[in-house]
Amino acid sequence: MRILVVEDDKDLNRQLCEALVEQGYVVDRAFDGEEGHFLGDTEPYDAAILDIGLPEMDGITVLEKWRAEGRLMPVLILTARDRWSDKVSGIDAGADDYVTKPFHVEEVLARIRALIRRASGLASSEIACGPVRLDTKASKASVNGTTLKLTSHEFRLLSYLMHHLGEVVSRTELVEHMYDQDFDRDSNTIEVFVGRLRKKIGVDLIETVRGLGYRMQAPDNAG
Predict the structure, then answer these.
(1) Residue among 82, 95, 9 at smallest CA distance from 49
(2) Where are any strands of DSSP class E within the chain?
(3) How far apart are CA 143 and CA 146, in angstroms?
(4) What pLDDT digit, counting tens, does each position of 17-42 carry?
(5) pTM of the entire predicted model
(6) 166-191 pLDDT, tens digit each
(7) Fold of the 126-221 domain
(8) How far apart are CA 29 and CA 221, in angstroms?
(9) Is it the case that residue 202 has pLDDT exceeding 60?
(10) Yes or no: is domain 2-119 CATH 3.40.50.410?
(11) What are phi and psi for residue 161, nearest 5 degrees?
(12) Cβ(168)–Cβ(215) under 8 Å?
């Protein structure tokens, strides 16, 4: 899952990015509104964290432009302002949730998890597919109760597929959501990661849809 962080405070930006990476997310960052708007408008994200008080272009304008351009990713706004009208303006501009500074990073992580779950139509922090369980809160996966030992890329692949159970996901889409903007992307590596993940899961849950990509679903839902 890929997250965009737009925050001009360099220390806070770094703290948020480090915490998100530790949770298994791929993270891109921006330090002003213009750069943030450009990234959000040109790259696919599963969610964005957007400060309201940004240089070059304020966060409300960034958000309004994203929504006007059809960008639908969940957006969590950050504000140091206590006035309720600022929060209302953010929600009216298209924000899905907000956090007022100062805040605990753990709260931001929890709210991002919730926004991504809602966007995927999921209610629980644990996603199940047959014997496979993905704990989004702990960033762990298991099969029949046994924890899977996954590399960061394997975990990102499994997480994305399980957030889109029953859907056909293309190799290009997986690449876009598994790697940040600076990574030398190669869709051929996806086949390698899928093969490794299948072996570690040990259950036939990931289907290759010829010419289209991959689909993960429990055997009872196949066909």
Answers:
(1) 95
(2) 2-6, 26-30, 47-51, 75-79, 97-100, 126-129, 132-135, 140-143, 146-147, 168-169, 206-209, 213-216
(3) 5
(4) 999 999 999 999 999 999 999 999 99
(5) 0.87
(6) 999 999 999 999 887 766 666 678 89
(7) Arc Repressor Mutant, subunit A (1.10.10)
(8) 38
(9) yes
(10) no
(11) -65, -40
(12) yes
